[in-house]
Amino acid sequence: MHESESKKFSDVAQEVMCEAHTPETIKALAKHAAELVALRRSSAGSPDVVSIGTRVSECLYLIKDAVVATAGDTLESRKEAAAKCFTFIAKAADMPRSVARQYMRIAERFKDTDLDLSAMTVRDLLSRP
Predict the structure, then answer these.
(1) What is d(CA 4, CA 11) in angstroms, rounded to the nearest whole number?
(2) What's the superkingdom here (predicted)?
(3) Do residues 65 and 49 lie in contact, with contact meaning Cβ atoms separated by under 8 Å?
(4) Domain extents for the chain?
């Protein structure tokens, strides 16, 4: 990852998080964004799709924890955290909310499976029960 790209991810994280952040949160979000971008630039085979979804989910958890810590654990703060997460993903990794959600659904289904995902397409993963 280039230094300018790393700075971009950190800047986007600070912009999106506003006052609900710590330096550790910003650093972790920038790291996840870098990994997302690298995975999306790779061959993006099915195992990579699960990894991408896992990174998106981890960003959501980081942001949710930060927002809940500053605003309290309410439905509104959780909705705000989700909005911040998808804004961050869109700006940092150029990934629309709908695509990010698909990656998250795939990761939730297949991250702990013993299936060989290398032969499966994203469509297969989305349609598989």
Answers:
(1) 10
(2) Bacteria
(3) no
(4) 3-112
CA distances, 40 to each of 21, 52, 124 (Å): 26, 8, 18
The predicted model scores a pTM of 0.82
d(CA 40, CA 44): 6
Q: Which long-range contacts (CB under 8 A, 24 or more apart) does 84-88 make?
A: 84/16, 84/17, 84/20, 85/56, 85/59, 85/60, 87/16, 88/12, 88/13, 88/16, 88/17, 88/29, 88/33, 88/59, 88/63
Q: pLDDT by residue (tens digit) across 72-128?
A: 999 999 999 999 999 999 999 999 999 899 889 888 887 776 666 666 666 666 666
